[in-house]
Amino acid sequence: MNDDLVYTIAPCGLGERDALLVASGARLSAIRARKYRIAKQKEEVPDLYLVDDSEAGWKAWQAQAGRHNNTKAPVLIIGNGEPSRLSKANKSALFKRPLVATRLLNTLDGMVENFLGRGELGISDEISAGEIRALKEVGSGPRSSGKKVLVVDDSESVRKLMDMRLGAMGIDADFAEDGETALTMARRGEYDLIFMDVMLPGIDGYEVCRHIKKNLKIDVKVLMLTSKASRMDRLRGSLSTADDYLTKPLSAEELNRALHEHLGMEISG
């Protein structure tokens, strides 16, 4: 497992059709923020096992997990009814056929979050539509810090993830999808901090930042939040008088650092 949210999965005893569908799901996950790849059976220790609920499947799991001393890793049981082995206490879940790639990925996501404790996604433009729908079902936390932030980004996934993260810290957040709207909102002078994407419809984030600082002369910290991370991009951010330059995907740790540094907030975790 690495910091790019890529998880290795090991199929055990699956038939040819199921194995092809698992491989299709792994390929499909390449366009998502949370990705899955099939482990090389003899060389890699997988994060999760996909086990056919049959004698052959359990024998294959026992041999592979035993070889890696990895029998406590989460197991997704592929079957037609109640599983014949393993209980919930052993970090297992049941996936009832038919095996569909998109449904499989959602189930694997749930296992990652419930059993591996690694469910947190970085702030990114590349969250899938399915993940956005799931995020919409999660409410934001209480808002009581007295801090107010403006997030300027045309990506729905970024806006939703920032709303969740900031809301959980008690920070009130407003959102703009383009530079013109951001300027209108910034003129109110009520924000303690502005997160600014670079690539926006109409005027770009650099120009918006420059206008806020030099023309409107608003006393507010502006943090560029972008996937553009070259030296030239950072220089343009500095020339636009941005106060910090954050790159996507933005980890929780980096977001916490920025809030601590620019808002003086003490954030645990």
Describe this structure in words.
This protein has nine helices and ten strands. α1 (16-28) crosses α3, α4 runs parallel beside α5 and α6 runs parallel beside α7 (205-215). Residues 137-141 have low confidence and may be disordered. β9 (221-226), α8 and β10 form a beta-alpha-beta unit. It has two domains: 6-119, Rossmann fold (3-Layer(aba) Sandwich); 133-263, 3-Layer(aba) Sandwich (Rossmann fold). It has helices at residues 16-28, 55-67, 101-116, 129-136, 156-168, 179-186, 205-215, 231-239, 252-263; strands at 6-12, 35-38, 48-52, 75-79, 92-96, 148-152, 172-176, 193-196, 221-226, 244-247. With 269 residues, the chain is of the alpha/beta class. The strands form two sheets. A five-stranded parallel sheet has the order 2-1-3-4-5. Strands 7-6-8-9-10 form a five-stranded parallel sheet, sandwiched between helices.
